[in-house]
């Protein structure tokens, strides 16, 4: 056996994950091996431990046995989060989107020209999301290239898988100090991509980030589409979050058939595109999403907190559009995908109250959205999202009965009950270890503690 496939870690116990066919698979007394590259080398049954140890050349004494009330689940994916807005998360939720941006967001984001401030907030947000079990995050930064590069460095140093976007906006009449010229936006995007790629971080990549149609001119949208295409990189933006926003887009882009058409026209809908929200997309627009391979980030906390709308996830799934969950900090006040999962269920139940015939999402489906769905939405499902052999070991070790934690066990609950309790009641106290590509990133080491 080659050196490259040496087994480094073996765990025995309960594993829960999703596949494209099944929202929840529970593997009891399973055995999972991770090699020195951090990828999953095998997953088998505990009773075959002897044969597996011979086939994969590990010693039985290296097997780490998990407790009855523990399980491993895939790391969670935050498909949409604004790193700078973490600085006011939990506040400023009293205005609708367009006023909220002017009053709170733009003035705060303008401060990120200050690298010291950026360093503090970006360190806090990456650590907080890692502790909350977010192994992959798709970040908006600000218009500032150097601060955006710093966010990439911090994610890399703390071991989070991340897509990082320098925000582009050449149209902003409400905050004159927080916008770029079209030329600056284009040149700085190119510099950002070049300098981030030159760092050769293994799991941090750039993403082309027009803020949304309202804050970009058509020439800039066209340039950004071309940049993404020429460099074969990801794209992220916002779409159809509120009724007011959709109406302004109609005024600003009278030649476009729909909001989706504005992006599609400028080559911004690809199979590496993730668009946040989509509350008001028509069936025709969803079809365009499916045809182009673009995905949606469902951000239910934000959608309710800013009174934006209710996304009909069932209809998105019916159109076979890829979809994951996003916190949308700080429009969403929580930086936890567990919260996003709860709000996704809640939104689905509100839709059911409004229409009793509605097929409510199940907790198993929401679990898949938080993990595999998110990885699909970010086109990272070859690397992460579930416990398939060959993927990176991005995982959470969950102890449902963690001492001092929020969950009481009543009797010997089945793993499915343990997972449901964790999804509804759990928090970071239950997430005892977090792994990204086989490397333990939580608890923090002395080096990452500072
Ligand atoms: Zn957002």
TrEMBL record:
InterPro entries: Amidohydro-rel, Guanine_deaminase, Metal-dep_hydrolase_composite, Metal_Hydrolase, Metallo-dep_hydrolases. Residues 72-441 form the Amidohydrolase-related domain. GO terms for molecular function: guanine deaminase activity; zinc ion binding. Pathway: Purine metabolism; guanine degradation; xanthine from guanine: step 1/1. Its EC number is 3.5.4.3. It is an enzyme of class 3 (hydrolase). One of its GO terms (biological process) is guanine catabolic process. Homodimer. Belongs to the metallo-dependent hydrolases superfamily. ATZ/TRZ family. This is Guanine deaminase.
């Amino acid at each position: 056996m080659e050196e490259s496939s040496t087994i480094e870690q073996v765990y025995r116990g309960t594993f829960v994950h999703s596949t494209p066919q099944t929202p929840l698979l529970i593997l009891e007394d399973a055995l999972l091996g991770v090699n020195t590259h951090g990828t999953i080398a095998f997953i088998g049954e505990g009773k075959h431990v002897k044969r597996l140890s011979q086939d994969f050349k590990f010693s039985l004494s290296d097997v780490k046995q998990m407790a009855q009330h523990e399980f491993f689940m895939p790391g969670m994916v935050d498909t949409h989060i604004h790193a700078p807005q973490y600085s006011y998360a939990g506040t400023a939720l009293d205005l609708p989107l367009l006023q909220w941006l002017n009053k709170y967001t733009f003035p705060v984001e303008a401060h990120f020209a200050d690298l010291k401030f950026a360093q503090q907030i970006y360190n806090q947000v990456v650590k907080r999301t890692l502790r909350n079990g977010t192994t992959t995050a798709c970040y908006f930064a600000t218009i500032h290239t150097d601060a955006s590069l710093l966010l990439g460095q911090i994610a890399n140093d703390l071991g989070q898988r991340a897509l990082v976007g320098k925000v582009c906006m050449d149209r902003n009449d409400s905050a004159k100090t927080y916008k770029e010229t079209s030329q600056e936006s284009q040149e700085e995007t190119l510099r950002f991509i070049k300098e981030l790629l030159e760092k050769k971080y293994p799991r941090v990549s750039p993403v082309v980030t027009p803020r949304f149609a309202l804050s970009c001119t058509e020439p800039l949208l066209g340039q950004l589409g071309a940049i993404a295409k020429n460099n074969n990189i990801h794209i992220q933006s916002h779409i159809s979050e509120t009724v007011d926003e959709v109406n302004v887009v109609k005024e600003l882009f009278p030649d476009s058939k729909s909001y989706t058409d504005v992006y599609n026209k400028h080559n911004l809908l690809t199979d590496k595109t993730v668009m946040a929200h989509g509350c008001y997309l028509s069936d025709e627009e969803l079809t365009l999403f499916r045809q182009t391979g673009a995905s949606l980030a469902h951000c239910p906390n934000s959608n309710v907190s800013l009174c934006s709308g209710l996304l009909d996830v069932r209809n998105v799934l019916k159109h076979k559009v890829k979809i994951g969950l996003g916190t949308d900090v700080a429009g969403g006040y929580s930086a936890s995908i567990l919260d996003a999962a709860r709000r996704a269920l809640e939104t689905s139940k509100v839709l059911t109250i409004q229409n009793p015939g509605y097929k409510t999402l199940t907790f198993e489906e929401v679990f898949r959205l938080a993990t595999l769905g998110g990885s699909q939405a970010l086109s990272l499902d070859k690397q992460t999202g579930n416990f398939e052999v060959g993927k990176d070991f991005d995982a959470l070790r969950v102890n449902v009965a963690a001492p001092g934690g929020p969950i009481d066990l009543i009797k010997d609950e089945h793993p499915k009950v343990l997972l449901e309790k964790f999804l509804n009641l759990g928090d970071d106290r239950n997430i005892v270890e977090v792994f990204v590509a086989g490397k333990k990133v939580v608890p923090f080491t002395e080096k990452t503690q500072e």
